[in-house]
Amino acid sequence: MPTFDPALTVRIPVAWGEMDAFQHVNNTVEVAVGVVTLGRSSVTLGYRVTSTSHEGAVVAEGVTVVVLFDYSAKRAIPIDDALRARIGAPTA
Asked: Quick check: is 28 in a domain?
């Protein structure tokens, strides 16, 4: 799993009615998202989900590769400088 420093962390509290089949209430989690790599036409985002009730134990990790795509030309297109600046540098 790639490492990254979170650019954004969101705490998701337990909502009413969130129980599993055994009537256990699911735990509050925090989701952290950061830029892992920034390529010519793609950005790789890393995700880490931690449980606040289990001392911050990591319960899930993942990555997503987002490709800037021109559907009419049917090809990937470069990320322009303005968008690249808004995305920011990789935090790995």
From this structure: yes
Q: How high is the pLDDT of residue 17?
A: 63
Q: Is the pTM of the predicted complex or chain greater than 0.90?
A: no
The residue segments making up the domain with residue 74 are: 8-87
Tokens of 67: 């490709």
Largest CA distance in the chain: 51
Tens digit of each residue's pLDDT (9 = 90 or more) over 34-87: 999 999 999 999 999 998 878 889 989 999 999 999 999 999 999 999 999 999
CATH label of the domain that carries residue 37: 3.10.129.10
Number of domain units in the chain: 1
Laid out side by side, the sheet with 8-12 consists of 8-12, 29-38, 42-51, 57-67
